[in-house]
Design brief:
This protein has about 300 residues and is of the alpha/beta class. It is about 35% helix and about 20% strand. The chain has one domain: Zn peptidases (Aminopeptidase), CATH 3.40.630.10. It has helices spanning about 15-20, 30-40, 90-100, 120-125, 145-155, 175-190, 210-220, 250-255, 280-300, and strands at about 45-55, 60-70, 75-80, 110-115, 165-170, 200-205, 235, 240, 245-250, 265-270. An eight-stranded mixed beta sheet has the order 1-2-4-3-5-10-6-9, sandwiched between helices. A two-stranded antiparallel sheet has the order 7-8. The relative contact order is 0.17.
């Protein structure tokens, strides 16, 4: 399968990236879908502006985090991130649903910081990468070249050592196989190797600190909302061994993943499957909310 941009076997240069960028048209509104909801939450949360993503001809996108109104410096902190990949819709709206319906439930127990849409340009274009064809979720590294990742890193840096839990909300979609993996192979000058898309929810834990009990608590909570992805014939999910029901592990730091941006003891990355015939958009959002609540509840019960 040859991607329509570039020459097979040759990594993209500036011309190919410009051609790719020209294909990316806004298909929904960050202002209407996300900023309007954040405005509606100002009376109930503290809204923190933590940067502006300069997308040149496409404009500048302000990015915001929402935090507990009853923030207490004596309490541990939790981080919830969504929209690191802008096309993963339930990550954004699940995070906002959690803030609207459940954030106040944790007042006096844990401070919660929610960055609901880390990549607004990509949200509008239903795209995985930022406008420079960089994957934000491989860019949480020192001197990050990705503005979206760097902005979030600056936001959390002053709270280093205070996070007890971090849950990063993602999706795995059919378009991963039809568009994003072929585009990545073309960009990097590599052959495209087809894979399968798991039907259901799963988690990516950290291979350096798996916290198996924590991962299974989140899986158990989500299983009451939507179905959990089974392993494939090789006992894998997206090419990684299944280590427990619905759980695989990645090396967060080595891969530059958002879930490695803090030293929180309890960390996980959710993966919802919105293209399943067995799930609705509302169910996908609810699965993200259930995952956040389960992560917070487990961390509070287990302590640091």
């Amino acid at each position: 399968m040859n991607y329509p941009i570039g020459t097979p076997g040759q990594p993209w240069g500036d011309a190919e990236k410009a051609a790719w960028r020209a294909r990316q048209q806004a298909r929904r509104s960050y202002a209407d879908d996300v900023l309007s909801r954040i405005e509606g939450l100002r009376a109930h949360t503290d809204v923190v502006a933590y940067g502006s993503i300069d997308c040149e001809a496409d404009g500048a996108f302000p990015v915001y985090a929402l935090r507990s109104k009853a923030w207490d410096e004596a309490l541990p902190c939790a981080l919830v991130t969504g929209g690191v990949h802008g096309y993963e819709t339930s990550g954004v709206h699940g995070a906002l649903d959690f803030v609207e319906s459940h954030l106040a439930d944790y007042d006096g127990r844990i401070n919660v910081l929610v960055a609901p849409c880390v990549s607004p340009w990509a949200y509008e274009r239903i795209q995985r990468w930022n406008r420079r064809a960089l994957d934000p979720n491989r860019s949480f590294i020192s001197d990050s070249p990705c503005d979206e990742s760097a902005a979030l890193m600056r936001l959390v840096a002053p709270m280093a050592g205070r996070f007890l839990v971090h849950i990063d909300l993602h999706e795995t979609t059919d378009s991963d196989e039809s568009e994003f993996r072929p585009a990545k192979a073309a960009r990097d000058g590599q052959p495209f190797e087809p894979d399968t898309i798991p039907d259901g929810f799963y988690l990516c834990g950290d291979s350096a600190d798996p916290q198996a009990g924590f991962q299974q608590a989140v899986i158990a909570a989500v299983a009451t909302v939507t179905h959990i992805a089974p392993p494939d014939a090789k006992n894998e999910i997206i090419g990684s061994p299944v280590v427990a029901h619905g759980v695989i592990n990645y090396d967060y730091r080595a891969l530059g993943l958002c879930a490695g941006v803090t030293d929180a003891r309890y960390r996980t990355t959710t993966e919802v499957y919105p293209d399943s015939p067995r799930a609705t958009p509302a169910e996908c959002n609810a699965a993200q909310v259930a995952a956040v609540r389960a992560a917070l509840d487990y961390a509070l019960a287990a302590g640091g």
